[in-house]
Give the backbone structure.
Amino acid sequence: MDKYIWLIPILPLAGFVINGLGRNSLSKSVIGFIGSLLVLVSFGLSLAVFFQIKSTGAAINVNYFTWFAVGALKFPFAFLIDQLSSIMLLIITGVGFLIHLYSIGYMHDDEGFGKFFAYLNLFVFFMLLLVLGSNYLIMFIGWEGVGLCSYLLIGFWYTNPDYADAAKKAFVMNRIGDLGFLLGIFTMILVFNSVQFAEIFPKAATMKSDNGPLYVITILLFIGACGKSAQLPLFTWLPDAMAGPTPVSALIHAATMVTAGIYMIARSNILYTLSPFTMDIIAYIGLATALIAALIALTQTDIKKVLAYSTVSQLGYMFLGLGVGAYTGAFFHVLTHAFFKALLFLGAGSVIHAMSGEQDMRKMGGLKGKIKTTFTTMMIGTVAIAGIPPLAGFFSKDEILAHAYAHSPIFWAVGVLTAMLTSFYMFRMMYLTFYGKFRGTHDQEHHLHESPPTILVPLIVLAILSFFGGFIGVPEVLHGHHELAHFLEPVFHKSNEILGEHHLSESLEYALMGTSVVLALAAMAYAYMKYAKNGSVPVADTEERPALTSLSYHKFYLDELYDLIVRKPLDWLSTFFYNVIDRLGIDGLVNGIGKGTIETSKGLRLLQTGNVGFYIFIMVLGIIAVLLYSVFGLTKI
């Protein structure tokens, strides 16, 4: 397969070119077929690469050419496919294909259908480049590329000013993180004189823990991860990014782009293992993000906003796993989250499609019998994300919580609390949407219908993966053989060796699992009693809410806080620079020189009178001046 690896990213890029150039001439069916087929072929190639690595256990390094060189420092354009990147390839192309297929039905009536598929294909190309790169520079190209595509797709309906603002917000906040990533790369060049994984990681492995330069590198890289993977304080762009079409939410903000930060840290695991202080920072920020986002999700009424804050919270879980050294557990959750969160976003899109564009859950209800396939698949996704066995989310979340307990029981307690909140707000979403009486308009009820097969087939496939996907990571305490951990062992071997294993007794592991499951079931039951049985519905925006509910509903006023402490001071500073430094200083100097020249020339122009007598008079004055100058001996002529 070594010869054909370059085709994996090139095929989606070809789809971008074909659909981009032919967006106004090709039919929608042709555009959808080309865009989806090329991603499917990439998935087939990725599958072949995965099985090759699984059978041989050896990573594949392909060096295509030297991109550029600066003295002895060379920057090759090369790909690395190992156990970690091979799974990411399957997620990107596999889930990506299902989302492309879904988009054929969901975006069929949109005028920008061809442009949308071109952007989707371009995004897949950059995401593949990000995970295929054998060095940080190639990764950074993909990193910036997915940021660009995120901007294009979030603001796809840019004629709506709010959607355009959401795209700009995502772009700017990502640039803050990207600056940290870029500075981290420069620091790596300074410390290791390389950006190659194969050169940096072995050198780092020989260094002592608590190394200053490693702390600088890991913190800078983590800042980049905070921006891309929506962690405090750079997470507020992701909920606003729901302005984009629903397939965008599923592809970018559930399965791929937002997990780029987790992939980058997992890839750089040895650097972080040797930087325990940075790992503590990651754990604390991940835990805080998970809890705050879960608290905000409790009161949201927009079905996509609930899922958006759920994504932020689940990403916090993944960072908690990375921070406590559960690299396999964090990546396991990346995998399972890709299944059930893509399913939930696409299911929400199916609901919105049935409701003629309505996203407010207060205007839904009673959809269980109207769109049965959508309901069934979304319920599977909800049970999975709630961490209820034997669905996928239980196994990956439990592994993170077990490592968190071994690191600190307080981490575990906050993590379990967050898991309970997750169960509550997800079942709240389901009961408000599918149970009780229909609360929409008569026209909406009249047009209620199940989605077409192009939308339902991806939902069914993702539901199956959400149900069975966790079985690749069944822990030994449940008499399983953690296939994923054994597969990823070569990637995390050195880190696991340094960190050592955290052994919990069998009875303690059962107790931890049981506690999280019981609390999740209790939250589900409470949500059922309140929203399904008693028919409680969130109040209208015009009505008053209790103080804590209002605080959660308004997202803890974080956007307003950022506006107060960041935007307004910067606006004032820019106004000051404009009025004082720019206008009075720079413009004053430049314009002053120009005006001085003009006024001087105006004065000198008056000497040119055309009167011969005046010219003789001036000449006499000049002669007298020269004579005086020489008589007083100031100089010799």
Summary: The radius of gyration is 31 Å. The chain has 25 helices and two strands. The chain has a mean pLDDT of 91. The first helix runs from residue 7 to 21.
